[in-house]
Amino acid sequence: MSARAIMFQGTGSDVGKSLIVAGLARALTLRGLKVAPFKPQNMSNNAAVTADGGEIGRAQALQARAARRPMTVHMNPVLLKPQSEIGSQVVVQGRVVGNAKASAYQAMKPQLMHAVLDSFHQLAADADIVLVEGAGSASEINLRAGDIANMGFAQAAQIPVVLIGDIDRGGVIASVVGTKTVIAPDDAARVAGFLVNKFRGDPALFASGMNEIAQRTGWTSLGLIPHFPDARRLPAEDALGLAERGSSGGQRPKIVILAYPRISNFDEFDPLRLEDGIDLQFLRSGTPIPGDASIVILPGSKATIADLAALRDAGWDIDLAAHLRRGGRVLGICGGYQMLGRIISDPDGHEGAPGSVAGLGLLDVETTLTDDKALREVHGKLMDDQRPFRGYEMHIGRTDGPATQTPFLTFSDGHRDGAVAADGRIAGCYVHGLFADDGLRNHWLRGLGAAASGLAYESDVETTLDALAAHLEQHIDVDRVLALATEPRG
Predict the structure, then answer these.
(1) Is 334 a catalytic residue?
(2) H helices of 398-456, where?
(3) pTM for the full model?
(4) Which of 74, 350, 395, 432 is flagged as catalytic?
(5) DSSP of 214-247, one letter per residue?
């Protein structure tokens, strides 16, 4: 193995690990290196379909794009997808292996280290450098036994660690120094340096803070990174930030997305969020659907039955009926499509106790949750006007019924997907990612009365990744990071 590797861990969640790895992946790729992003364990319901037919976390998909290489399941060998009372779905090297509650998963972790190291070595065999991203906080010493996500992996692979702290949330000196205090001495010895992220203001004002951290920890300061405002233009993995990711104001057509508790694949709405001609709102429970909404979108869900119950608890079923009486439109995607039907059956207990529940009854279809999981990229045309589309499927379940005789999409292989109500105002499909296509998105928005847009979404993502790379090159000692990276020995 000739590749070097270095791991980026955080003092907590959402300190910017994913974006820093993505930015460094692009920066090192622009330097001519062959970069492989890697995250041993991820927890997210925002996933991507890989070229080898599996699924990985959306952050690793962005990092692969930044490194200009195809996605592979080995970039994120263990993916946890939280569901309802059955815990999380466990995906290993792209394939579902079962479900586990938190306590049961802790017992599983040591068995998963083999798969994690196998994937890591496969990536390292075809790279100059592997950029490894940790999960959550490095200081969660209560989870250290059997750990595969942070120091447990770093020790197993024998690679150095860079610790990232977030100054924007306050207390960054205590969080970095405190991490050194609570972790085991051999783990602390694996940390080669630290970064402080999301700084706002004059960097000179925190120079003494950086020195204080270095003196108290003995770790090398690798950079103070100013806040990067264009981060909002890149796909997000964490649903916690959805409330801040909308756009609003003016008399523009209003698109409402129901952000139920287990919303999945919500990054597919990023192209809509960046549009200037619409008012996009993600609604959390407790917020009624506004009366002036042009269309309400029911997005994907990792636990359709549980999220359908949450939708009803929020009173959104009543709001949807009122919205339709006012002439509004409704679109369901994947789990949202399943909710629109008359019945959802789960005979094998994929989401909890076996049984069936009544759907919203807005489309004349019925869904049965099945063992098979569809994971593939698809393309074809819209049925109504033959406009081309590209997207991906990521779901369990089969949906049939009279409304499917008026499908929403037809695939290039002749398969038809989705359903459209007789009046054309209610529709659903299984395909994610439709709005990333500029032509289709503009056509759809014009149907809502929105102004034409000049947004070229895919180009915008590329431009933003390049800008992020330049930002990190300016504020991180990238040469020093490269010098710290070592060849794995584990």
Answers:
(1) yes
(2) 438-447
(3) 0.92
(4) 432
(5) HHHH-PEEEEEEEP-GGGGGSPP--GGGGGGS-B
